[in-house]
Design goal:
By secondary structure, this protein is mainly beta. It is 8% helix and 34% strand. The chain has five helices and 47 strands. The longest helix has 28 residues. The termini are far apart. It is found in: Cell junction, Adherens junction; Cell membrane. Keywords: Calcium, Cell adhesion, Cell junction, Cell membrane, Glycoprotein, Membrane, Metal-binding, Repeat, Signal, Transmembrane, Transmembrane helix.
C-alpha cells in the first residue's frame, strides 16, 4: 500500500493496493514544504465500481500521529455518501463502501475526515478533505443514439461514395483503459457497402449499382469497445439505404408502328391518339418530349406529352375532311427532357415510331360558302325585292339536295323570305330604317336523308331614304317680355330629322304663307341648321293678348325635299329688369293656324255622347247582376212560387251536413235580406207550452244559418226541415227530444197531422191524441 504521511501530528491516509499516485511530506522545521513529485496527489482514494462481494469493500485507512493506540482518539467521517455509502471504524480509521458504486452515475465523492478526543469530543487534528474516486470497469456497451438510420445515394455511384456516418457512444471512462474506444464493422450489407472502422462512415463498395434492379439495401453496423478485442462489449444499428434514380435508361416506344381511327367530325383540339412510351427511370428522369419529324400531316396534327402519364397525345390542329384525304402517316420521335451527360455512352436517349391515322367518313351537315354574309337593301324597296343569295353544298360524296329556310326566332316579324331551292333572299314586308337599321338573320341549310342542318348568319343593313320630315328639336317654351324692343331675338330654334343622309343634315327655316305677313314676329334663317325668331314691334301687353302662335316651316335638303309646319308658342310675360319672366297670361290666340269654333263644338259633342253610352252600359250590367233578394220591408205576398216537391221527410238524413251547423264562427253576409223566391217566414209545426228560452248564442247561430241559406244561390229552391243538433251553452230549453215532450202539459192539438198524408204519419203517431185524450207514441 502507499502511505501519505503528513507528519507533525498529522493524519496519514493509507489506500488500498493500487499503483502509487504520489507522496506528500511536510517538515516541522522552519515550516518548509518539500514536494518530491508535483503530479502526485496525496489525498485521493480509489474504489472499483460494480463490486459484487458479500462483505463491504475496503477503501482505505485514516491514521493520526496523535493516536498512540491507547484508545483516546476516534475518527469521524463527513461529506458525500458518509454513513450512507461509506463508513469508518472510529477506532481504527478503516473506511469501507457498503453499496455497489456506478461510475456512470457518480465518478467521485468528496469527504472530510477528523480525529477527535474520545472523552471530550474535541478535535485533535484539523478537519482534512479527501476524494474517493470510482475506478471504471467496462460495464457499458456502445449505443447508437441516432439509430436506426436511413440514407439515400444515387444509383451507379462509384466505389467509395459516402452514404452516411453512424456514431456510437460508450458511457465508460474514455480516459482510463480501452473501455470507451469503439471500432465499427458491417455485419450485413456486404459486398455492396463498407464502413470505416474508426469514423463510422458508410461507403459504397460495388460500382454500377442499378436502381431498376434493386433500389433498397438493409445494412447492420456493429460498434465494439475495447478496440474490438476479445471481451469487449458491442451494440448494433440498422441503416436503410435507398438508391435514388438517375437518367441512365433511354426511352423507347412499346411498338415501332401504330394505327388509329378518327372521325372526320372531330372538333379542333381533340385528342386523336395516345402513344405509350416506356422508360425505366422515374420522376424528372422519365419526363418526355415528343415531336413529329416527318409525314404528310405536318401542320394538321400536334403531339405533346401527358403531364401525368408521359404518354404522347396527338391532337388535331385543323378540321378533317374524308372526301379530301382519308389517311395520314406520321413519324414521331420521343426523347428525355433531362439528359445526364455521364450516361450518353449508353446510347441515344431517343426513339422513333410510325403512326398511321385513318379518317372515318360521317354524314356531315351542309356547309355554306360564307358563314357570315353582309347584304344591303333600301328601305324604299318594295315587297318581293331580292336582297341577295346564300349558297351551301353537301360536303359528302353523296351530294344530297339542300333546302333553305329562315330561323324565325331571328326574324320574328317575318320581314324576309328565302327561296327553299335557290337560296334567294327577298323582302316580305316594307322596311323602315328608323325602326331597325340592321337585321341579324340566321339561315338554315337542310339535308333531308338523314336530317342534317347547317347554318350561317347574314347581316342585312337597311339603307336610308329621305322619308321623314324635319321637326323641332325640342318642345320650345318661348317668353316675350312686355318691354321687348323691335328686332329683339326672343328664341333660337333648331330641328331634327330621323333620316341620316350621307352628306349630313341641312335644314331651311321660314314662316308659312299665312304667317309671313304678320306684324308681330319674323324669322331669320342662320344658315347653320338654326333660325332666330325676332320681334317686329314693341309694346306687347298681356291684357291685349297673352299668347301668340307662330307657324314655322322647316324643310330638309333631301331629294325629294320634305317639310313640316311646326307651331311655336310665344307667351307674353311681365319681366324684371334683367329680362327674367315674372308672371305670364294663360290665354292664347291664333295667328293663322288652329282649330275653329265648329271643330271644338263637334269634339265636345262626341265626348258627351261617349259619356252617355258608358252610363247606359253600366246601368244595364247592374240590372243583370241584381240578386233575387228583397228588403224585409217589401211585401212578398205578390210573388208566391209553388213547388210540388215535399222533400224526403225526416228519413232524409243526407240532404244537409250536420257538421256545418256546429260551427259558431260564421260570417254574417246577408245584411238581413230574404230570398225573393221563398216565403220570408215558415210556420213552426211544433209549438211548445213552455216559453221560448232567451239564449243569445243559440238564436244568433240559427239566424246566421238562415241568412246564409237565403243568399246561397246553390241552395235548393224549396223549404225543407233541418235538424239542428246545437242547443247552446246553458240552454233553458233543456232537451229537445220528443220523448221529453210526452211528459209535458202541452195543450196543443196535433190531430191535424193525420190529414197531411202518409209522409206525416210518423209525426201524427208521435204527437197525435187517442180517442180517450191521452198522448201516445209509436
Amino acid at each position: 500500500q502507499t502511505v501519505w504521511a503528513m507528519g507533525c501530528s498529522g493524519l496519514s491516509f493509507n489506500s488500498v493496493p493500487l499503483p502509487p499516485v504520489g507522496t506528500y511530506q511536510r517538515s516541522c522545521e522552519g515550516g518548509a514544504h518539500h514536494r518530491q513529485r508535483r503530479s502526485w496527489v496525496w489525498n485521493q482514494f480509489f474504489v472499483l465500481e460494480e463490486y459484487t462481494g458479500d462483505e463491504p469493500l475496503y477503501v482505505g485507512k485514516l491514521h493520526s500521529d496523535v493516536d498512540k493506540g491507547e484508545g483516546q482518539v476516534k475518527y469521524v467521517l463527513n461529506g458525500q455518501g458518509a454513513t450512507s455509502i461509506f463508513t469508518i471504524d472510529e477506532n481504527t480509521g478503516d473506511i469501507h463502501a457498503t453499496k455497489r458504486l456506478d461510475r456512470e452515475e457518480q465518478a467521485y465523492y468528496t469527504l472530510r475526515a477528523q480525529a477527535r478526543n474520545r472523552e471530550n469530543n474535541l478535535p485533535v487534528e484539523p478537519e482534512s478533505e479527501f476524494v474517493i474516486k470510482v475506478q471504471d470497469i467496462n460495464d457499458n456497451e456502445p449505443k447508437f443514439l441516432n439509430g436506426p438510420y436511413s440514407a439515400r445515394v444515387p444509383e451507379m455511384s462509384p466505389v467509395g461514395t459516402s452514404v452516411v456516418t453512424v456514431v456510437a457512444t460508450d458511457a465508460d471512462d474514455p480516459t482510463y483503459g480501452n473501455s470507451a474506444r469503439v471500432i465499427y464493422s458491417i455485419l450485413e450489407g456486404q459486398p455492396y457497402f463498407s464502413v470505416e472502422p474508426k469514423t463510422g462512415v458508410v461507403k459504397t463498395a460495388l460500382p454500377n449499382m442499378d436502381r431498376e434492379a434493386r433500389d433498397q439495401y438493409l445494412l447492420v453496423i456493429q460498434a465494439k469497445d475495447m478496440v474490438g478485442q476479445m471481451g469487449g462489449l458491442s451494440g448494433t444499428t440498422s441503416v436503410m439505404v435507398t438508391l435514388t434514380d438517375v437518367n441512365d435508361n433511354p426511352p423507347h416506344f412499346s411498338r415501332k408502328s401504330y394505327q388509329f381511327s378518327m372521325s372526320e367530325s372531330l372538333p379542333v383540339a381533340s385528342v386523336v391518339a395516345k402513344i405509350k412510351t416506356l422508360d425505366s427511370d422515374v420522376g424528372p428522369n422519365a419526363e418526355m418530349e415528343y415531336r413529329i419529324v416527318d409525314g404528310d400531316g405536318l401542320g394538321l396534327f400536334r403531339i405533346t406529352p401527358d403531364r401525368d402519364t408521359q404518354e404522347g397525345l396527338i391532337t388535331l390542329q385543323k378540321g378533317l375532311d374524308f372526301e379530301t384525304k382519308s389517311s395520314y402517316t406520321l413519324r414521331v420521335e420521343v426523347s428525355n427532357r433531362n439528359i445526364d451527360l455521364r450516361f450518353l455512352s449508353l446510347g441515344p436517349f431517343s426513339d422513333t415510331a410510325t403512326v398511321r391515322l385513318i379518317v372515318e367518313n360521317v354524314d356531315e351537315p351542309p356547309v355554306f360558302s360564307l358563314p357570315l354574309s353582309k347584304m344591303l337593301i333600301s328601305e324604299a324597296a318594295k315587297v318581293g325585292t331580292t336582297i341577295g343569295t346564300v349558297s351551301a353544298h353537301d360536303p359528302d360524296s353523296t351530294n344530297s339536295p339542300i333546302r333553305y329556310s329562315i330561323d324565325r326566332n331571328t326574324d320574328l316579324e317575318r320581314f324576309f323570305n328565302i327561296d327553299a331551292t335557290t337560296g334567294v333572299i327577298s323582302t316580305a314586308k316594307p322596311l323602315d330604317r328608323e325602326v331597325n337599321a340592321i337585321h341579324n338573320v340566321t339561315i338554315f341549310a337542310m339535308e333531308m336523308h338523314p336530317l342534317q342542318v347547317g347554318k350561317c348568319i347574314i347581316l342585312i343593313t337597311v339603307t336610308d331614304i329621305n322619308d321623314n320630315a324635319p321637326v323641332f328639336a325640342i318642345e320650345y317654351e318661348t317668353y316675350l317680355c312686355e318691354s321687348a324692343r323691335p328686332g329683339q331675338v326672343i328664341e333660337t330654334i333648331s330641328a331634327m330629322d330621323r333620316d341620316e343622309p350621307q352628306s349630313g343634315h341641312r335644314f331651311f327655316f321660314s314662316l308659312t304663307a299665312e304667317a309671313a305677313g304678320n306684324l308681330n314676329f319674323t324669322l331669320r334663317d342662320n344658315k347653320d341648321n338654326t333660325a332666330s325668331v325676332l320681334t317686329m314691334r314693341g309694346g306687347f301687353q298681356r291684357h291685349d293678348q297673352t299668347m301668340y302662335r307662330l307657324p314655322v316651316l322647316i324643310m330638309d335638303g333631301g331629294s325629294p325635299a320634305l317639310s313640316s309646319t311646326n307651331t311655336l308658342s310665344i307667351r307674353v310675360c311681365d319681366c324684371d329688369p334683367d329680362g327674367a319672366p315674372q308672371s305670364c297670361g294663360s290665354e292664347a290666340s291664333m295667328l293663322s293656324a288652329g282649330l275653329s269654333t265648329g271643330a271644338l263644338i263637334a269634339i265636345l259633342a262626341c265626348i258627351l255622347t261617349l259619356l252617355v253610352l258608358v252610363l247606359l252600359i253600366v246601368t244595364m250590367r247592374r240590372r243583370k247582376k241584381e240578386p233575387l233578394i228583397l228588403d224585409e220591408e217589401r211585401d212578398v205576398r205578390e210573388n208566391i212560387v209553388r213547388y210540388d216537391d215535399e222533400g224526403g221527410g225526416e228519413e232524409d238524413t243526407e240532404a244537409f251536413d250536420m257538421v256545418a251547423l256546429r260551427n259558431l264562427k260564421l260570417v254574417r253576409e246577408s245584411g238581413g235580406k230574404t230570398r225573393r223566391d221563398v216565403t220570408p217566414e215558415v210556420p213552426s209545426l211544433f209549438l211548445s207550452s213552455r216559453p221560448p228560452p232567451d239564449n243569445g248564442i243559440f238564436r244568433d247561430f240559427i239566424w246566421d244559418r238562415l241568412k246564409e241559406a237565403d243568399v246561397d244561390a246553390s241552395a235548393p229552391p224549396y223549404d225543407s226541415l233541418q235538424t239542428y243538433a246545437f242547443e247552446g251553452s246553458g240552454s233553458a230549453a233543456e232537451s229537445l227530444s220528443s220523448l221529453d215532450s210526452l211528459s209535458t202539459d202541452s195543450e196543443q192539438n196535433y190531430d191535424y197531422l193525420s190529414d197531411w198524408g202518409p209522409r206525416f204519419k210518423k209525426l201524427a203517431d208521435l204527437y197525435g191524441h187517442s180517442d180517450d185524450g191521452n198522448l201516445f207514441a209509436s
